[in-house]
């Protein structure tokens, strides 16, 4: 008898956790497992700002999917561009651009999220995100290039614009990115005799009245104090009205001449979710507490792409925040529920009480709230790094990260510009491939044509 086909979409926190558990708990005879992934690694996103600032090398947070010969999951290199839940088929664009199809009996949807953008003129052309490894590596090169170019320029206005950096988004991603990169420029400028540190300006802006509200009033204020002490100008209740190649206009009317706009103002579910034509909540696919998708037989969804009921949060109708902490644990629940489905056993609901937040602001600056305990400074930094280090999946990744941290602590930052930049500066839309997806009607037409040619 043919083995049931399990297809997992997305090799992030949720997808990889699910696949590894399935491999451990199912015998090869019980199911065939495939994983569609555009890259051959799982990206440890929370440490991305440290790649941008050069504390960690890109390879250290790219955890290989193929490292161990124990793993038997078939990896399909590419991205799913449409799902037809009625026909039980995924349409895949492989990394060579070829469009293929894959039928499944059980589907696990974990494609994560993309940077959330708004209808702001010039945003997708001129802003840079912090969501992929390429973006972080690019941003590092770009920031160092601005120092080089400012140093080389004789034009006062150009120098000022190149030394002005704007980060939008006061959540943990934006705050960490601004803090880590400011620290980089602070150290780097000493190696540029023609530049004065006072010429460099960093701006962090957010529409919300507070930074990282999930930290609570006092820790949020502590983070704000650290940033302001470092000279970062934090503007709350403000966003971007217009973005251009050489300036950013804020909603309070200020026009900042600058060549660097970093956009980290939240995430939106992967556009893949819209191709299913099923119910969504704020763009995330609605799922049951058992993480199944209503009206789509055999489909589970989880992580940033799914609106998972937060049963432990205590608030009626709440959904889990898009964090790695939840995504990874949901991966385990989906694996268990999929195995229960195959074995005809009852499914269990996903319940996880949030463990708190850690925010690494570079050096010994940090704030964290593990299990509700507010920490700052060195203890917060130890908790933040200890948490991330222990969450890395492989010993090789753990060793790389620890070695990088020790090296950075002893030898300090380095300011190498690798020169990988393209002539036309790539922006948000160049990194996240958001225009590759089919519409629900196109997916159905595609699978109908498959059926016709098979018949
Ligand atoms: C800068 C930054 C800092 C963060 N810090 C923290 C933190 O400190 N703590 C925390 O808990 N969370 C943090 N997060 C959030 C956390 O990283 C996400 O919530 C988590 O990665 C979500 O896991 P996921 O598996 O749903 O998605 P991801 O981990 O993003 O994985 C999705 C995977 O799917 C792949 N994919 C996308 N589209 C397709 C497709 N069409 N077909 C096939 N594959 C596809 C992607 O390439 C990716 O590999 C941070 C995020 C960022 C960006």
From TrEMBL:
Organism: Streptomyces subrutilus
Keywords linked to the UniProt accession: FAD, Flavoprotein, NAD, Oxidoreductase
Annotated InterPro entries: FAD/NAD-bd_sf, FAD/NAD-binding_dom, NDH-2
GO molecular-function terms, A-Z: NADH dehydrogenase activity
Pfam families, sorted: Pyr_redox_2 (PF07992)
Gene3D superfamilies xref list: 3.50.50.100
Domain FAD/NAD(P)-binding: 5-331
The protein, known as: NAD(P)/FAD-dependent oxidoreductase
Family indicated by similarity: Belongs to the NADH dehydrogenase family.
PANTHER family the record matches: NADH DEHYDROGENASE, NADH DEHYDROGENASE-LIKE PROTEIN RV1812C
SUPFAM superfamilies (alphabetical): FAD/NAD(P)-binding domain (SSF51905)
